[in-house]
Amino acid sequence: MKKFIAWALVIISLIILLLRFSDKWAEFLLGVKQTSGISVYSLPSEARVFLDEKEVGQTPYEAKDLEVKDYIIKIARKEASWQGRVKLTPGTITIVNRDLATDSASSAGEILTLNKGKGLTIISNPTEAAVEIDGKSYGKTPISASIEPGERTILISHPNYLKRSIRADLPNNFNLTISVDLSLSEADLATITTPVITQTPEVTVKQTPTGFLRVRDKGSLNGKEIAQVKPGDTLILLEEQGVWFRIRLPDGTEGFVSSSYVEKKKP
Length: 267
Prior knowledge:
about 270 residues; SH3 type barrels; 3 domains; seven-stranded mixed beta sheet
């Protein structure tokens, strides 16, 4: 009887660990790999979709049970195409929506990604685009806003560029990151070109003398330590402020780290 109780306690402890650290422990202890999905839309539709250079279907395209990793996605229809790198998140579906064009200046679209946390993060190309959420101004990109869960309408605008309206449903306990490309208005196409956003800007923590890197509540050595990250950790880059980077942790916490101990990930 005592052995049975002891084994029961061990099993209960394992279940608690799996619930608390489900992504990594489930894979480690049970061999169950986390999966994710992707939905790809385009204008015009019926464009060919490629994942890591392999043709997988036409838009609108959806795939579930994909391996959690970075994918090179290409959408092509006749001479119009777009290509970018997208990082999938365990247990969520990443949405890629593109207006295809033969030149990058006329191309527009967005990538919507969910990560554990809260609120809404918007990054745009070009930067410093004005953001309105449900008709209320929230400043200019890149921004991170504390928004309650629910269906939201996001309007992104910039002088000389066509406005972009996005309707998205923000779930509980997740941060929604939107990376947006704006297309130039017809009057400016002949004089200005613009690069294409491929993914959310990220940084990797480098080796430090202490074996960890402090995350502070403000960009100063006098800032209060609010978290610690380890070498090799990946953080979302929200803003560069001289020798300090404003970043977001996987749990949604925002803070500042020294730019000397992080390295921008190559797109």
